[in-house]
Amino acid sequence: MKCDVLWTVVAVAVGTFLMRYLPIVWGGKEQQNAGSGPGLANGVAAAVIICLALHGLGLQDARGLVGLLPTVAGALLAVLAQVFWRKFLLSVALGIGGWAVARLVADMLSNA
Amino acid sequence: MAVAYLVLGVAFGTAWVGAGQDWFWAPVVSAMMCAGAAQFALVGLLANHGTPGEIIGTCLAVNLRHLLYGGVRRYIGALSRVERLYVAAVLTDETYALIVTGAKHDSRLAQRCAVLPVAVANHVAWCLGGCLGAVGASGFGLSSDCAGALLTVVLLTIGVELVRGLGWWLLGLCTISYAGAVLMTRGYALTLSLAMSCCGVVLVHAVQRSPRA
Asked: What residues 67-86 of chain B have any CB closer than 8 A to a CB of chain A?
């Protein structure tokens, strides 16, 4: 890793730590009194995770239907498995399995 | 949750090597930052040769939500200073959620038993996953495509559980935000959708807490 990258990582790590620690030291009581505690924080965290997941589907990339097929198929399989069975590892395994199979199919389609 | 962190960590380690970085820095970066979304943003910007200013600005913007996590103070107040510093350093979204949804413990011993194991387990799993992913990518040819798919699948699976707990309106809000962001600007779709959906969550929270609601 280059020196500037290392210092960038250190700067982000220090900034992140301060963002986490300072509200605990100074803002904790105010946040609790204002009632903006767990509910709002959990909602924001969930929104970040869902947006990252939607971004991971690659809908913003111009890859075409065949290019999108593997990720979307794997994601759909994982979501359905989680909705119906609620087994985290099973859902992830099915999702990755679905992605691998769909990738094979997409490769065959693009080669044909 | 630690298993989820392990899988996410593998995706990060693979993406880290895919961005042209040395494998052994992946667990070090994970140990130092312990911030999933910001680390993935960091990898993307490093791969696209972002400037230090862009990288620091984007990563800290992604982590702005941590300013809301001050409420965790009541759950870690009885810990020693070093323990509080550690929990603050590794406080992720999921660790925060696990701590605040657990029973409130007042004594130091109870907080040590309830809070510290959660923080340590998630942190260790995240670093271990990063190490495994980086080794897999550099030594065994684990592709960044596979890591990207793994990341998406894990995030969606976690997202299903979050939506189940918080309400399906959240999925609608995020989907509309993301679709709108893609229509407006493809290059900054993620940043814009994060901003819009977080503003939406704050708005919904405010409406739900208003006296008339």
From this structure: 67-74, 76, 84-85
The whole-model pTM stands at 0.74
Range with the lowest mean pLDDT among B9-13, B58-62, B84-88, B154-158?
B58-62
- Cβ separation of B152 and A91 shorter than 8 Å? no
Q: Closest approach of chain B CAs to the CA of A72, in angstroms?
A: 9
pLDDT tens-digit readout, B137-167: 888 877 777 877 888 888 888 888 888 888 8
- Is A92 an 8 Å CB contact of chain B? yes
The radius of gyration of chain B from alpha carbons, rounded to an integer in Å, stands at: 18
Is the CB of A79 inside 8 Å of chain B's CB atoms?
A: yes
- B184 at interface of A, judged by CB pairs closer than 8 A: no
Question: What is the radius of gyration, based on Cα positions, of chain A?
Answer: 21
Choose among B54, B68, B5: nearest CA to B34: B5
Report the half-sphere exposure of A81 (CA within 13 A, side-chain side). Answer: 23
- Among A19, A32, A52, the residue with its CB nearest the CB of B63 is A19
Mention every residue, 6+ apart, whose C-beta is less than 8 A from residue A70. Answer: A99, A100, A102, A103, A106, B149
Model ipTM value:
0.78
B177 falls in which pLDDT band (50, 70, 90)? very high
